[in-house]
Amino acid sequence: MKASHYTLSTLKETPADAEIASHQLLIRGGFIRKLASGIYNWMPMGLRVLQKIEAVIRDEMNASGAQEVLLPVVQPAALWQQSGRWQQYDDGLLLKFNDRHNRDFCFGPTHEEVITDFARTELKSHKQLPVNYYQIQTKFRDETRPRFGLMRAREFIMKDAYSFHIDDASLQTTYRLMYDTYCRILDRMQLDYRPVQADSGAIGGSASEEFHVLAESGEDLIAFSSESNYAANVETAEAIAPPRSTDAPQDLTEVETKGLGTIEEVSEFLHVAPQNTVKTLIVVGEETPLVALVLRGDHKLNPLKAEKLAAVATPLQMATDLEIKASIGCLPGSIGPIKVNIPVIVDHSALALANFICGANKDDYHLQNANWQRDCSIDSSSDLRVIQAGDPSPDGKGIIAFKRGIEVGHIFQLGDKYSKAMDATVLDKNGKAVVMQMGCYGMGVSRLVAAIIEQNNDDQGMIWPTALAPFQVLIIPINAHKSAEVAQVSETIYQQLLDLQIEVFLDDREGIRPGAKFADAELIGFPHRIVVGERGLKSGQVEYKTRREGENLELPVAEVSTYLKKVIDRELADSH
Amino acid sequence: MKASHYTLSTLKETPADAEIASHQLLIRGGFIRKLASGIYNWMPMGLRVLQKIEAVIRDEMNASGAQEVLLPVVQPAALWQQSGRWQQYDDGLLLKFNDRHNRDFCFGPTHEEVITDFARTELKSHKQLPVNYYQIQTKFRDETRPRFGLMRAREFIMKDAYSFHIDDASLQTTYRLMYDTYCRILDRMQLDYRPVQADSGAIGGSASEEFHVLAESGEDLIAFSSESNYAANVETAEAIAPPRSTDAPQDLTEVETKGLGTIEEVSEFLHVAPQNTVKTLIVVGEETPLVALVLRGDHKLNPLKAEKLAAVATPLQMATDLEIKASIGCLPGSIGPIKVNIPVIVDHSALALANFICGANKDDYHLQNANWQRDCSIDSSSDLRVIQAGDPSPDGKGIIAFKRGIEVGHIFQLGDKYSKAMDATVLDKNGKAVVMQMGCYGMGVSRLVAAIIEQNNDDQGMIWPTALAPFQVLIIPINAHKSAEVAQVSETIYQQLLDLQIEVFLDDREGIRPGAKFADAELIGFPHRIVVGERGLKSGQVEYKTRREGENLELPVAEVSTYLKKVIDRELADSH
Question: What string of DSSP letters covers A42-104?
Fold first, then answer.
């Protein structure tokens, strides 16, 4: 491709609304352009990368035995009503509209309903199972605050797959196969990523894992073990119960703590560490009006964990001061688990304490040397808190540290959540109708473009792996308008590379200074760059530079194409 | 691919709502499934064909120098308001909705606005021109009555391209290049098609041509010359002016025609052919309240032609009986062009008559031997009528006949319709801002799947050209469960063909009778079929049959793969 016939539209200025590297560089490099909030045009250069990523995904999905389909973007409400998600699906994310006959439809953000409807019609017998259908398709989620360019766009491209099974064992097998397939896909993209235990959120079902590309700009916080493969989204990471304190109980004492509102103030006043205090949070209950949740003073409540408790109402709702005062008789700053008149659920770490400080359920008073068995009637203990850096890893190996990640994939064991609600059955060996088990496997295709850039950039621009670069080689002729030889050698090398099936870009733009062409080269991130100049040609050489290593070599004109062919073939083989 | 790992979902029954062959066969063959009115799931088998068609289109578009982009599905109303189409675009076809912030958007049915917005931002100089951007993308048009399966679906896949030019000469060059590219694409699909002069409709602009695949089921009627390349949509085909009658004028006579309402009744009563009468239609005018349009008695008004007249209001509206009576003094059955008190526009064919019959502008009376020059004051003459079979071809060669066609492509010279409204300019050689000229080039990708079937089917099913078939070869083992040799030979041939990069499908389904497999083979239309049976194997032979010719051959097992490789390579070369 020659620049004179191509829309090479780079920008010097970083757009004001672009906060992270990938967003800035995709805009500056002329890969995408914003059309509306969270909605982007893919320009020729950007689309080439997107299509290469799609090709890798398609290749590995086909190799896994999955069958490609293409389901409609526009989905009838009736199916979403059957699954129960028409009202419930992540409030507001579902873009709904009416057609000309005033029937309800939505712009598909995901396709569980459509594929389950398809499967219940087309699949009749256990002999047709297992199957795994996938598609690569444009989706829409009406984010309140789209940002970070392709990272959290409203219109985006996703690979979604859905598998159907006669039983859980078969689901496990395909789930594992998809796990391996995702690893292969991300390996081929040369990404530094981690599979991470996750909450299955609005999609539902049981086990689920996310695939995170590690990057400072990631929106998710991930808890890692220092010594094992354990990794979990901080939102859901289990905090394990420490051993119970064996200290002998001391005398329970009431102390006045007037004017001390926070754990820190009370701890300081009483000369104890916040780790030896508990805080008691009052939330709305499912079976009783209120429920008390007790955590160690230095710990934070994890709302997802609290919501999973049967006794706690969903969504989680804190009691108001008025409700607390009316029910318990004091304000929130003085509540404690002892003799409180509502159900008490204690976090494992708080339960390990002895001789701790807690509120006295009397305004301006706390208790010292409280002990669970002696002083309290508790209803249950549970994991209620957010995991912290420095905690022991839940798998028993090493210590937890945090890193940030970009979620590029998510695999779920859905079980029968959709197939049961939508009555998707097949006949088993005995001719009995059985509800199918389902898995689902998402991958953010357009988001991957951004994630790859987050891991592959410097202050000059993007650094593409050869397998994913928009073009593999860039040729810059220096002042070709003044030197027929420069123009001719550039053209010759260009043709040689084309003949070798190498994707080459010739920057033959007139009236653009060499400096500007070099800047564009770095910005766009062509992996291999050849500069043809008069000076070098005098000794029959051109200048060769790689974008990643930045090393400069002089190459004899006659050897350029064979040299590049060898290097590129090896690079492409490495990413297979 | 093996059937045991594939969703092969054929139906014996023709679906009740499927009227044409392609719709019936796509459903029966398990290529698509209806999700909602005019909205279809693409099943694995169907998607393979769709992707092959996309690949041919992409290949030829790239070869033409066009650059692939991908524009958003969801488009902001603001752009459509700038172009003036937000209210005007083919009433109701535009699917509109609001996002969560209550901003207006639509589901893109076409992308003139988005690409013009893109071009006005990215293109600054005449040096960047000409450019031609294309995309292959899902679109939505909210048809009142979707039908014929993929032929008139609401959600569909389209290739749309948009070119930008410094002047009309450059637009002409690219338009011609696209014309040739469309011919190459349709040639490669081995279609019997015709480029046809067309009306540019809601898209606007000047010249435009449609590409029609000829088929009885086509929704469009096309006028062809018996002796030249002339072809035009009947909606827009010009009717040429016949030579004027040289008969000497006879005396004008008034005759009573009480109770005779139609041209046929009047002609019969007066013993003249309808060809020697005129009918006068009263329509709403642009500058005057009413206008009279005069046609020969046997001709039909073409509303598109009438609407193009400056004197006639758009959209075309017939005057009511009351308006006619009030203004002219008689009812519609007795109107004529002579001494009528409103502007008169006469169709060329009516103008050629002498001594004709017309209404007398007096209820129950007609005039005989009317003559234009002597009796009438006319305002202009024009081509007003629908062309008819038997008319002379407008290019002067041969006679017009009609055929039905499926519109699969449409190319337009838009001129400055969008670029002017949206202020899309570049600087010319002298540094002056110039409004760009535009072309646009659509092709119905999913509709092509249907069109190909309309031209390639018989009462057994579809007949795919090898280059577009979902799989090139089908292997059917006969009773493999009873014969290890049949199973093993089938598997060997299967592997040999895979190794030769041939797309082969092995029907290894258990519990399905051979007859049912044969029926599926014909229905799906695999171009090459190999049947492996015990009887043939005794003499080392398998049965080979082509779907199109239906010829049966015995092939030695050892030669099957090399024979097929040779045949298929030749077929694929033919469609390049």
Answer: EPHHHHHHHHHHHHHHHHHHHHTT-EE-B--SEEEHHHHHHHTHHHHTTTT-SEEEE-TT--E
